[in-house]
Amino acid sequence: METSTGIDAKQRLSAKLLKAVLLAACVLGIAISCVQILIDARQSSKSIDSEAQQMLAMIRESSIQAAYRLEPTMAEEILSGLMEHQSVHVAAIKIPDEPELAVVERSLSTSRYRQLSDYIFEPIRIYRIPLYKEEPFHEYYGELLLAIDTAYHGREFIQRSLIVLVSGIFRAIAMALLLYLIYSLILTKPLNRLIRNLSQINPDAPGSHKLPMPKGHQNNELGLWVRTANQLLESIERNLNLRQKAEAQIMRLSQYDYLTRLPNRKTLQKHLQSLINKPSASESNIAILCLGLDDFKSLNAQFNFNAAEHALVKIADRLRNHIGNKAYIGRLGEDQFAIILSKITQPYEAAELAQALLKQLIKPILVNDEKITISGTVGITLFPDDGQEVDNLLQQAEFAMIMAKSRSHNRYQFYIATIDTEIRQRKKLEMDLHEALEHHELSLVYQPQIDFKTSRLVGAEALLRWKHPEKGPISPEMFIPMAENNLDIIPIGDWVLESACHQLHEWHEAGFNDLRIAVNLSAIQLRDKNIVDRINYLIHKYQIPPELLEIEVTETCIMEDIELSSEQLNKIKATGITLALDDFGTGYSSLSYLKQFPFDKLKIDKTFVEGLPENKENTVIVEAIIQLGRSFGIEVIAEGVETVEQEAHLINSGCTEGQGYFYSKPVPNEEFANILKDWKNRPSTS
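Now predict its structure.
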């Protein structure tokens, strides 16, 4: 008779001896498992501490930057990365004598093992590390706090413990059975052979060497043990291979950006440090280039998140393919890349690479079946001339890029010492601008627009002003590009539109029914797919005849995306709104888009009005623009009229309207109301 395992019943162990062996095995298995569980508990406790310290160390540098810059948004993004770890309960960045810069929090786990795991590991463990720069002044910026919910680790420990307990018992039983076979059947020869083969097993590849089957024991317990052992060895090798692959993947994820597959900031720092540490580093220069994409946030606003990521991957591939083996490229942040160019002899080599990258970058890419163009700006710093610390070099390259971007796009900028101060001041001003609307620091002023034919005041241009509580008035040329760069221009632009419409409604109520108001629209607002609905809502809310609301856009604004601009402007025009092309003559001045876009008016930039009529070059340009407007049936208004001679020349040349200091500087609404009354009482000319 045979059992279900295929072993002859006559060859089975006696029931009495088997019971004794199993009982001893269970006791031994439980005892060994308890010891393993105690060891595992201690190791799990250390693992919780180690994991927490690793998480703190991973974000320490970026947290220092956030605390140093006092940037809550950046701090929240840094801490949000920690929330990918389920064990994180609370993470916070604290600064001295101030509320927390940023705090993220998750509720405690409701694990069914919670009561037992809390007893073993404590419910919450709290870790803190100070935030300070070690060099050169040891400045203290605050504290990074992390609270770990031990329930996740506790649940895994308890589950492991159960497995250890059960597997320990089974292992002990298996071992007892093996010992029973050895001593009861006296299989010394096959046992010695098995022992020799066991000693030849490679722990790193246990499945590559199988135990031989002893002759005559294929169908008994020894044969079963050999088959099972070989299966276990194969299983161990499979699991070992899976673990090695998982560890390799984890290592790669820790060193490379998940989206672009480029080296991440940490890997870039290691590579740069290795270049600096080379003995030959002192004899050659290293250039660090920080390439930042221009208006990438607006791309996120224009398309969905996946489309923006797709564009970023394409850009990364293009940069990587162009650079090849000439330099080392990695991703610093959302829209920033770092390029490390080693062994250069002259700074111009870095400049040439920057120019080549910008040229590659500006080529159109296809996103959602739509061609878009993304420019970039590059900051360059040099080792050892600008510094020798890795973090400082990367920061200096980023500062140079930010400063270059504040001046214009699609250019590069070398680092200079004064940039640090300028960047700090600019960052502070950007933070203040973010709150300027809420603190009622923004206001509108109005400049009259005069009809040359009737000598009547027919319109007003609404101009934005910012009065900083400490610095006083800030130039629009400074703060408007800031607002466009960080997308504050969207709420600010909405406020300007509504305030201008509200003011025009009040003037109409006061009896100036034919007065028109002009409002500037930024490139980001023009790309907003809700802008047409917003304008429609305002003209109905304030009962404004559509033709008395004039929307002004610049040439550079519409040239960023001609197809989308044409679509948006035609939708705006369909509402009856008046469209004006601002600063005409300073950009492309192309006849093709005058035909393509439904403009009602051209505005001659004030730089061409200066010096009229003595300046012959400006005279030719102004007369050409006026003639161009006539050819297309478009009215022409001149900005910057300051003298009676300029006005006379413009009128004689056929210009239809003018505005400038000759009539009035931009003034608040109360003063403008007085100007309206004065002009209303003047006699008109036909």
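The first strand starts at residue 88 and ends at 94.
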